[in-house]
Amino acid sequence: MQEMINIFVKSVFIDNMIFAFFLGMCSFLAVSKTVKTSIGLGAAVIFVQIITVPVNYLLLEYVMKPGALSWLGESFKDVDLSFLSFMIYIATIAAMTQLVEMVIEKFSPSLYNSLGIFLPLIAVNCAILGGSLFMEQREYENIGQVLSWGLGSGFGWALAIVSLAAVREKMKYNHIPAPLKGIGITFIVTGLMSLAFMSFMGITL
Amino acid sequence: MSIFSSKNVKLLSGPLNLQNPVTVQILGICSALAVTVKLKNAIVMGLSVIVVTAISNLVISMLRNYIPSRIRIIVQLVIVATMVILVDQVLKAFVYDVSKQLSVYVGLIITNCIIMGRLEAFAMGNKPWPSFLDGLGNGAGYAMILIIIAFFRELFGSGTLMGFQIMPKAFYEAGYVNNGMMIMPAMALILVGCIIWFQRSYNKELIEKE
User: Fold this and answer.
1) What is the reported pTM?
2) Which ipTM value was assigned to this complex?
3) Cα separation of B50 and A15, whole Å?
4) Is B193 on the interface with A (CB under 8 A)?
5) Does any domain span residue B102?
6) How is chain B split among helix, strand and coil, in percent rounded to 5?
């Protein structure tokens, strides 16, 4: 349990998807104009992340790793499908976002209306694929750790986009040099926020 | 239509400046920043993206009339993923140390917005040859920004270029210290901000309106 909390805190503050790895920057910059929409997108990312990361973990453990197919029988013992991981991850992500979209539409139309347009966009959000790839690279030991990494990375991303949106809403009233207006100053603000997040480095529970 | 008509040359040169995918279209930032600590990594990453954009643009453009529009994203993802797997295997075979350092960012070329953006915006509606050039140009525009950022980060961050010592020893003896900030992620973002600033003060038409 302690290990899980540790992974969660680390993935939100230290290994933050945006500030340490720059994942999901495209939608991060494009959608962070108002706080309201960025909360919607952040929630959608958390949601998809806690589903896709564990599913990809199970696929990796029982289908793709060298020897993972041994549950099928002796003859599959030497099969190594790990070179297919990109293809399988992206297929899972595309399928899951589609599925999540359909489920939400059926059971909670009000949530669907607030998230609706963002859900298809998530399939090509680097943060989601990055979550699965880091999961593979870091070799987490069990499904609990993977789940808390998925939740933490999604939550960190949501935290980043909501706080940037809050800064940008206030920045509308500032006098910024014309060539820096819009995207230029957003980059610099993100850089400064990333510096601030570096103060969390080294925290363990 | 000749192979290198002025229109086609424009497809190739536009993305280098006025249509630059990173600083003007704001696509593919994710990987642009993370791999730029060392110049060598940036060059390898730039080349990989050029190959993937050019060839997937070409393939999608050849298939554009056969792809049902409802499932086009999945078809595009599969083709891009295939290309990326090829690139990844080549990198692992020939430049293993760089491939290790690029870590997950090679895989993330799949969701690089430049590729999806160009497939959607250009390759789905144009003939194969112009699409190929468009992919090549956009890949090159991306690689160019990567190399500029990596140049500054490696030179000031560790005093080297491509792993060779550039800053003379005499500087260090006189009290010069490498700027550790340059290695950190934050500085990459601020450098991109500055590049955008320079580019827009030079090309006034790119300045954003309120």
Assistant:
1) 0.81
2) 0.78
3) 29
4) yes
5) yes
6) 70, 0, 25
